[in-house]
Amino acid sequence: MIKLLIQDHVPAAYSAFTLSSCAELTAGYLERISDLCTGICTLSFEIQFAHLITMSASIPTSPQKYPYRPLVEPDSFRLLLIQPGAEDEIHCNLIHTTLYDCRLELFDHYTALSYVWGDLTNPKLIWVDSIAVSVTSNLHAALCDLRDESRALRLWVDALCIDQSDLGEKGIQVAMMGNIYAAADRTVIHLGHLDNANTSVLKDLELYFRQLVVQDQDSTQLESLHEQAMKSILSAPWFRRVWILQELVLSKEPLVQYGRYRVSWDEFCRFLGPAKKQGPTTEMSTYQLVTEMRDLRERFHRNKGEN
Predict the structure, then answer these.
(1) pLDDT tens per residue across span 242-264
(2) Residue 63 lies in a domain
(3) Which residues pair with 188 in a beta bridge?
(4) Is residue 66 assigned to a domain?
(5) Are strands 111-114 and 186-190 parallel, antiparallel or unpaired?
């Protein structure tokens, strides 16, 4: 039957093909195709492996000096655009803007960061416009805690948005810091990396702020929560910084963040209110400072509204 089909559909020169010759031809063809596929796969693997080797060789393992572009306008400043992600590496970009443009912005508002620079002896690497840049471990922790897995964040942070090696620019930008904090949609007060010892306290606080803890709960438990919170939160180095008063008072909406736990400044102060007589003696001075900062901030914004 196969021989008849061949005779009916191909020229006479090929009619002598028999079943065995067709099988031999097919087997040889398949063998050549198999060799060709194996060669292509091997070549593809070699190309991909060489590409990975090239990429790994090009990834910097030491910090570099970021090539800052000059700020042109009198009210120019930079914002750090933190790219979304959940991996260890932090990737971001520096963009230029002005205070005038930010005040008129409808969509892409920015957040200002208030934090403690911290120890300079244990730096971490982040990638700014694909350039490896060294930052303190405190700043690295803050960027990790603020970064979202799916959304980019516009952040103003002095250590990166100001060219620290340019004294002229640094002087101008420091003089603008009050306006930068005032123009920010929010200011995050990052108290530091959250260790295991304070995690349970912050979880309880989150329940408190979400109003999942009933108001008439055991007063002894509430006092214990106040005391633990004052020990873990008010001992943070942020409360001993020189610049915190300006950064807090001028901000539109300050948020207090410890690790990835975040609460508004007003809620934070309301929670500390009942702790006035219950907190540890060693933290009372910080508590009094927070109370004075709260009152000063309220007076400033009340007078600002009246004017």
Answers:
(1) 788 899 999 999 999 999 999 99
(2) no
(3) 113, 255
(4) no
(5) parallel
